[in-house]
Amino acid sequence: MSPYNYRIFYRVDLINMSVPKQKTPKSKTRRRRSHLKLKPIAVRFDEEGTAHLSHHAAATTGKYRGKQVTTTAQVRANRTLRNKKSS
User: Fold this and answer.
1) Cα four-point dihedral sign 72, 74, 77, 79
2) Are 20 and 26 in contact (CB under 8 A)?
3) 16: nearest Cα among 5, 26, 8, 4
4) pTM of the predicted model, to two decimals?
5) CA distance 87 to 85
6) Percent of the chain scored above 90 by pLDDT?
7) Which residue has the higher pLDDT, 42 or 11?
């Protein structure tokens, strides 16, 4: 350890924070943030025409990719539980 680094631990005035030399232009800031925008939600429509999230079973029919995954009774039960939790 060099003597200079050793002094940093004891002398607080030697520790300086970095400060930008110039103000960042608006165009550079906006260019950097361009990918932070919200993306639309991917909604799929099944054979019956009901909308559901992609890679999820349809809430009304309980089908996923044309196959019956859950029964409609289970779908209704889950929906009522969800409504009770949110209220």
Assistant:
1) negative
2) no
3) 8
4) 0.42
5) 6
6) 15
7) 42
